[in-house]
Amino acid sequence: MLRTTLDGPLDDFAELVERFLRAPKRCVNRSIRWRTGNHPDYAVARLHLLADGFEGYRTRVEMAAHLKRDPRKFQFALLFNNTRVLALDVGPARSHKNLLTGKSIACSHWQVYPLY
Fold first, then answer.
1. Are the beta carbons of 51 and 68 closer than 8 angstroms?
2. Taking a C-beta distance cutoff of 8 angstroms, is the pair 61, 84 a contact?
3. By three-state DSSP, how is residue 18 classified?
4. Which residues have CB under 8 Å from 95's CB, separation 6+?
5. How many Å apart are CA 31 and CA 15, to the nearest integer?
6. How is residue 40 annotated by DSSP?
7. Residues β-bridged to residue 48
8. Percent of the chain with pLDDT over 70
9. Mean pLDDT of the chain
10. CA 90 to CA 32: how far, in whole Å?
């Protein structure tokens, strides 16, 4: 359980995430740089954000694109202190299960913390 003081104590991380998602955000990057990372089939871009009322927290957007797959696969993720709190998976390579619901997912879909 995370406790912090923005306007007073918060009982859990989920409440903090909810406030973060509602806060205005702006990108501080001057340009977007796509780079290949640990996996040469993917290019990744990271955008650093400032969120009003969340100074001192690590906030960023990570975008990934599969370079060789057809049709293309893309991913967008909003991270708050290195935790994915909002993500969009476009054209997933294979079906996978939602751990909480047990349902199989094989199409583009949004993911919101804590429901992955």
1. no
2. no
3. helix
4. 104, 105, 106
5. 32
6. T
7. 60
8. 90
9. 84
10. 20
Beta strands in the chain (DSSP E): 25-27, 35-36, 42-51, 59-66, 74-80, 83-90, 96-97, 104-105, 109-112
**Tokens (6 digits) for 37:** 């990372």
Residue type, 59: T
**CA angle, residues 94, 98, 102, in degrees to nearest 5:** 110
* 59-102 pLDDT per residue, tens: 999 999 888 877 778 899 999 999 999 999 888 777 878 777 78
| pLDDT (0 to 100) of residue 33 | 93
Cα–Cα distance for residue pair 6/70, rounded to 1 Å: 45
Q: For the whole model, what pTM was predicted?
A: 0.78
Distance CA 73, CA 93 (A): 7
Token readout for 89 is 């998976």
Identity at 36, one-letter amino acid code: T
Label residue 101 exposed, middle or buried (CB < 10 Å: 0-12, 13-18, 19+). Answer: exposed
**pLDDT confidence tier of residue 116, bands split at 50, 70 and 90:** low
